[in-house]
Design goal:
Oligomer: single chain
Bound molecules: adenosine-5'-diphosphate, magnesium ion
Helix content: 10-25%
Largest sheet: 6 strands, mixed
Distance between the termini: 29 Å
Order of helices and strands: EEEHEEEHHHEHEHEEHHEEEEEEEEEE
Strand order of the largest sheet: 6-7-8-3-9-10
Number of strands: 20
Radius of gyration: 25 Å
Length: 368
């Protein structure tokens, strides 16, 4: 990121609704202008609460929220220049689309003709030109959500908050809207802070993701970094699928750790973090698609162990094999793509196989 001041900053923000339990604990997040940042986490992790504090609908219990570099804890919601779109598209059923959009501008002392222009412009943005006269009951779920989006955009907010806006749509429509949202965000250049509990949605849309649990951001990083360099077992487990084994560090030399692992035996892995120290008990993680299955032991010098295929699942674009290895509690998940780049033949259930990997594919994580 640039050295430019963040547009939005949460600084040690805490929230308690009842004066006792903190539902947001020490939340920190910087969002730069033009970013698409997603807060990803299970239900109850405090995502909505963070958005409500940023929008000004809930007071901050402790800490500060800044817009540019101004603290906004005491600024009224309508003076923050922040728009919000909710999951349950809050549009007025008794007003037509045009009146719903114009409603958002009612305090802004804008000329009637200009309001009309801005309504049309906003409808164009969400691909509903000419829908001004429709009533809520004449719209599909997807169209209603677009109207809610247009109603937020018409105010030309600096930041748009979207709280699970696609959650009520069916899968196909949701995927279509995801692409449109991303395109819209790029074309209008508004900073988006998006909330979802769907990791695929977060990975495909965001410039950065804040992984939330229990009122804290566990890691804030780009989708690629989160996937390839998770900082904890919890994040690694939450983003995609991951295999874990326990290990003890035997030695660390030149950025390389030698480990004694449960099931995989003596292994090596890149060691870039402080917790990887001689004698430490740690966790070794590897993604299912980084494991290689073969009937014979490969001759390319990769480390390998023998295992037994327990089950497999056909997933269309890939197969998942579950391979048990002596000494390991859980079978390893291995994902084989249709192209077969990491398997050398069709592998049968219950057959004995070799499981190989490159040292660089291993991720070392602290024990939680
Ligand atoms: P998320 O959006 O991640 O599902 P929320 O921010 O809605 O999480 O909720 C976080 C926690 O705060 C939950 O335990 C929830 O029950 C509680 N909570 C949310 N809103 C209120 C409220 N208005 N009053 C009291 N507790 C609330
Ligand atoms: Mg919520």
């Amino acid at each position: 990121m640039t050295t430019e001041k963040p547009l939005v900053r949460f600084e040690n923000v805490q929230k308690s609704y009842d004066g006792e339990i903190l539902v947001v604990k020490d939340f920190n997040l910087d969002v730069a202008k033009g970013e698409f940042v997603t807060m990803l986490g299970p239900s109850g992790s405090g995502k909505t609460t963070c958005l409500m504090m940023l929008a000004g609908f809930e007071p901050v219990t402790n800490g500060n929220i800044y817009l540019k570099d101004k603290p906004i804890n005491n600024v009224a919601p309508h003076k923050r220049g922040i728009g919000m779109v909710f999951q349950n598209y809050a549009i007025f059923p008794h007003l037509n689309v045009r009146a719903n959009l114009a409603y958002g501008l009612r305090y802004d002392k804008i000329e009637k003709a200009e309001v009309g222009r801005r309504v049309e412009e906003a409808l164009e943005m969400v691909k509903l030109p000419g829908f001004g006269n429709r009533r809520s009951n004449e719209l599909s779920g997807g169209e209603r959500q677009r109207v809610a989006l247009a109603r937020a955009l018409i105010k030309r907010p600096k930041v748009l908050l979207l709280d699970e806006p696609l959650g009520a749509l069916d899968k196909k429509l949701r995927e279509e809207m995801q692409l449109e949202l991303r395109a819209l965000q790029e074309s209008v250049g508004i900073t988006f802070i998006f909330v979802t509990h769907g990791q695929e949605e977060a990975l495909s849309l965001s410039t950065r993701i804040a992984v939330m649990t229990r009122g804290k951001a566990l890691q804030v990083a780009s989708p690629k970094d989160l996937y390839n360099h998770p900082v904890s077992v919890e994040v690694a487990d939450f983003i995609g699928q991951m295999n874990f084994v326990e290990a003890q560090v035997m030695d660390v030399r030149n950025g390389e750790a030698v480990l004694d692992s449960t099931g995989l035996g003596k292994i090596s892995a890149p060691a870039s973090s402080d917790f990887v120290q001689k004698g430490a008990n740690i966790i070794v993680a590897i993604r299912p698609e980084k494991l290689i299955l073969s009937a014979e032991r490969r001759s390319d010098g990769l480390r390998a162990v023998q295992g037994t295929i327990k089950t497999s699942a056909y997933l269309g674009d890939r197969d998942h094999f579950y391979v048990s290895v002596d000494g390991c509690e859980k079978p390893f998940a291995v994902a084989i793509s249709e192209t077969g780049a990491n398997s050398d033949q069709s592998l049968e259930r219950q057959s004995i196989v070799w499981l190989s990997w490159a040292d660089e594919s291993l991720i070392l994580l602290p024990r939680d």
